[in-house]
Amino acid sequence: MNEMSNSVIMSHSLKILIKLVSRKTSLNFTVMVLRAILVTLNKKYDHLKMITLREDEFIGEAIVECNPKIDTLKTDKIIKSLEAIIRVIWVDLGGKAGLFFAKELQMRIGQEYIQLFADHGIDFEVIQLEMSFLRRREKSKKGGADAKHESVLGYTWDSVSKWKYDEKKKTCELFDKFGNKLDTININQIIEDHVRQLTEPEETVSPDVKSQLNRNDIEILKLLYSEDVDMETVSVKLGIDENQIMSTVQKLLRLDFLHHTSDDEVQLTDTAVDYLLNEEGMTKKA
User: Fold this and answer.
1) In a domain, 274, yes or no
2) Which of 17, 81, 180, 243 could hold 45 in an S-S bridge, CB 3.0 to 4.6 Å?
3) Beta-carbon-side half-sphere exposure of residue 19 (alpha carbons within 13 Å)
């Protein structure tokens, strides 16, 4: 096999990933998501800062530009960072879509690249088995694959008829079939949280996460730890309305401080309990 430069390896691999993911959405949205993944992962793989992604609207393809300095690095670093990117996308798709992605990636990336990854200890078949295990474990933790979150979000994915992405604000608005706005999502924040969940230990409460907690968030966590409370009780004790409670619950679910035990019940995660014991000085239950 002819020796390939790091920039060629990175460019080819990212273009293949973008092509596969953009089948499910627009090229513009896919490039934006990949950019956010690169930004989050560059905390561990700083060479990802040397990569620029943009779309060429005329030809309808993504352009991957690499700083020439990337070719001075060890190829093993490049392969490991690509593995991390692939894992994030793979887990995010999940289910049948994840399986299809896995097969398509191996088919389209080319045997030469499969061998290159294998030479650096990366086996696509092994990754697929690992990802399948992680998905099963996550479903088990959160109450099974059929758990629905409608009681918290106020809608499900089936309710979403269309979405509108705002390039400047980096947000995505979701609408139902009647044109009513269901939600506004901060895409960069969601992607960063998702990547952190995959790349950081579950028990770790990073300074960044701590800084996102306000007094209402903490008081609700304390109430849930101390007693079995419903929404009305929380509203009375904290003096906040239902919309504020719903918003706080969504935030705590996203930060992995809560998880669903049924359609309309949530429970503190181990991360939340550790936070309350270590940071808020609460007493451990017998």
Assistant:
1) yes
2) 81
3) 14
CA distance 279 to 286: 19
Residues 45, 111, 86: CA angle, nearest 5 degrees: 30
129 and 163 together in one domain: no
The pair of structure tokens assigned to 147 is 């758990």
Q: How far apart, in whole angstroms, are the C-alpha atoms of residue 79 and residue 260? A: 36
| Sequence-separated (6 or more) residues with CB below 8 Å from residue 192 | 36, 39, 40
Are the CB atoms for 125 and 105 separated by under 8 Å? no
Do residues 240 and 232 make contact, with C-beta atoms less than 8 angstroms apart?
no
For residue 86, the SS3 value is: helix
pTM: 0.52
Q: What is the pLDDT of residue 108?
A: 87
- What is the rounded distance in angstroms from the CA atom of residue 237 to the CA atom of residue 223? 9
Residue span of the structural domain in which 45 resides: 6-141
Per-10-residue mean pLDDT, the chain, length 286: 83 91 79 86 90 81 92 94 86 65 82 90 74 56 45 62 74 82 72 61 60 84 83 83 82 80 74 85 76
Residue ending a domain, among 109, 141, 173, is 141
